[in-house]
């Protein structure tokens, strides 16, 4: 084999390699990035850098912020979006800080966002915020060493309602209404959803508030579900019962307090059974002697909740 033949062979090899990389980017822009992703170990321990950036300005004129919990290391780290609770009417990106830190310290890039509250705009405004945030992360997570191959969600209470709607209606044009500059072809599909005390049946929760004569909760529902029939239209349980063309492809985890009088355990069990019957993959974990927001206080059951969430995420990342 002469020198010219060797040279031509080397050029052909380089061209083939370049073609392979180009093909990967054509099929999925994050493919090459994901190939070098750090294997997630739930038992790992990382120091964090915490920062904040602007996400978007909502219709009420408030700048929604994103709080970023970034593990210190080369990454890329699996990316998790945190959606806060607050009965759709209150709270912000700081609501789940202890859980966000606990997850991030195990080697996850966790981004907690503000969402529009009902006093600013009713349903589906906060779902639109969350849908936008998923798409925004698919473009920007690499800025903080985040891997975008399998973006997941951790959500709490009413944030769990938002997360379930994102999972079940990933391409709903109502939820996808906020354009993301330069990323028109990116959708809001997610790889998994882990939830603590989610509102999986909006009307059942309202009926429970009426039985308990919880005037604050009754008002929260009426402000958010406006017009009122949206309490049924956006009800994850009823979506399944109506046999809507909803996705059940997203694996879910529900962590539920046994003493929760806000979102009742039997309501969660019913949703888990319905999601599974519709072909979905769902894990339901009941935490004894725990109320609605038990993870807000340090203790063995809070530690257990973090471990359960991390183990679930690890399984979904390996799947």
Describe the protein's architecture and organization.
- With 319 residues, the protein is an alpha/beta fold.
- Helices cover 40% and strands 18% of the residues.
- It contains 11 helices and 8 strands.
- It has an 8-stranded mixed β-sheet, sandwiched between helices.
- Helix 10 links the parallel strand 7 and strand 8.
- The longest helix is centred in the N-terminal third of the chain and has 25 residues.
- It is globular, with a radius of gyration of 21 Å.
- The N and C termini lie far apart (47 Å).
Question: What keywords describe this structure?
Answer:
Rossmann fold, disordered N terminus, 8 strands, 18% strand, alpha/beta, eight-stranded mixed beta sheet, 319 residues
């Amino acid at each position: 084999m002469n020198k010219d033949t060797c040279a031509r062979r080397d050029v052909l090899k380089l061209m083939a390699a370049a073609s392979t990389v180009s093909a990967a980017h054509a099929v999925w822009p994050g493919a090459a990035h994901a190939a070098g992703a750090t294997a997630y170990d739930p038992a790992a321990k990382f120091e964090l850098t915490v920062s904040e950036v602007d996400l978007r300005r909502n219709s009420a004129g408030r700048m929604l912020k994103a709080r970023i919990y970034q593990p210190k290391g080369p990454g890329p780290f699996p990316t998790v979006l945190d959606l806060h609770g607050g009965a759709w009417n209150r709270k912000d990106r700081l609501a789940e800080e202890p859980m966000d830190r606990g997850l991030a310290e195990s080697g996850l890039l966790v981004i907690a966002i503000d969402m529009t509250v009902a006093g600013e705009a009713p349903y589906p405004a906060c779902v639109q915020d969350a849908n936008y945030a998923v798409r925004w992360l698919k473009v920007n997570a690499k800025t903080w060493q985040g891997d975008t191959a399998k973006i997941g969600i951790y959500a709490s209470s009413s944030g769990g309602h938002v997360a379930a709607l994102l999972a079940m209606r990933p391409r709903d044009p109502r939820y996808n209404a906020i354009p993301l500059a330069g990323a028109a072809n990116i959708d809001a599909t997610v790889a998994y959803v882990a939830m603590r005390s989610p509102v999986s049946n909006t009307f059942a929760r309202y009926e429970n508030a009426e039985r308990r004569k919880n005037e604050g909760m009754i008002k929260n529902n009426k402000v958010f579900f406006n017009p009122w029939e949206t309490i049924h239209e956006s009800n994850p349980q009823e979506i399944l019962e109506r046999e809507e063309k909803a996705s059940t492809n997203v694996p879910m985890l529900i962590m539920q307090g046994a003493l929760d009088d806000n979102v009742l355990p039997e309501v969660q069990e019913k949703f888990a059974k319905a999601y599974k019957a519709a072909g979905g993959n769902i894990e339901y974990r009941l935490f004894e002697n725990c109320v609605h927001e038990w993870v807000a206080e340090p203790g063995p059951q809070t530690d257990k909740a973090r471990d359960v969430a991390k183990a679930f995420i690890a399984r979904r990342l390996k799947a």
